[in-house]
Amino acid sequence: MLTTTKYPLRKEFRLLGKLLQAELSTGTKRAQRICEVWDLLLLTERTRYLNFGYWVDGCEIVDDACEAMVDLVGRAAELKPGDRVLDAGFGYGEQDVRWLETTGVSEIVGVNITPLHVREARRLAQAKGVADRVRFLQGSATELTFGAETFDKVVSIEALVQFAPRQKFLEHAHRVLRPNGIFAVTDIIPLTAQENQTPTAAKQKWEKDSFFNGTSKENWYAADEYSRRLTALGFTDVTIRSIRDDVWEPWRRYMVSRIDDPAFKARISRMIYPTYRKYLLDEVGQRVAGQPMAQADYVLVVARKPER
Ligand SMILES: C[S@@+](CC[C@H](N)C(=O)[O-])C[C@H]1O[C@@H](n2cnc3c(N)ncnc32)[C@H](O)[C@@H]1O
């Protein structure tokens, strides 16, 4: 339930500080600080998901859509009792609690680069009584030290775009998966192969836009190249399906429907509100190059490691 209490001043100062810190740092520190900025910008109501949501089957609020996203990836990965699962970039751990509760997987090991997320995910697992089936570790998905063939499934939601670079994680994912294991993730990529081949304005924007800050420049490749890379690593049955029509625009429509609601408004930093509102309401802006949603695709990527 939302209240109309104003966004507290002390949070405004913290936000300003975090934004400055992020701007002044590089590499892992920058990625961590950007994630800490998001913590002050969360607009979910009953959860702490950090994804745009998959807006199907009558989702009413963003939390419903985020849960639908979790279920989508769970189905794609064919999560089932007995599975040992690796989750990279788990946010606040909400998705893992849901998979543990709904699919009966035996164990999830999560890896996340942001200390705040690791701490909060551990707390959530305790509170939900699933701490004995999940381990949240701090570290980068690009530097995994797990043994070869130790997981049945590798999953991730809206995080690979930030891995510097994504390719390193794809290599680890293939290595740690058991034969017949499934890789299933949602990810953000450029829309077309053409954009991938020439340094377009969109590419420059991808590299510089704050929306994608903390992402790796090396991650600028579209579905065909993504698929080629997975195949080259030895994955089979590779599918990359665009789900953007059920992500970007429904998310934007939902935010637009709420943006002037005093209770909702009170949860947004006053520093950010005017820009955010303009961005959401400017439909033309959504379509012109330069707006991340106009240039980016939102995809579900699924692949299998073949039997030996
Ligand atoms: C957009 S959030 C998505 C979080 C969560 N999957 C969700 O949907 O709520 C991306 C997550 O990836 C994590 N992350 C970013 N770079 C990472 C890396 N190199 N290794 C592991 N996690 C990383 C961030 O800390 C953050 O938790």
UniProtKB/TrEMBL annotation:
GO biological process: one example: methylation
Domain Methyltransferase: 80-210
Keyword annotations: Methyltransferase, Transferase
InterPro entries: Erg6_SMT_methyltransf, Methyltranfer_dom, SAM-dependent_MTases_sf
Keyword Methyltransferase belongs to the record: yes
GO molecular function terms listed in the Swiss-Prot or TrEMBL record: methyltransferase activity
Keyword Repeat tagged: no
Protein name in the entry: SAM-dependent methyltransferase
Taxonomic source organism: Kibdelosporangium persicum
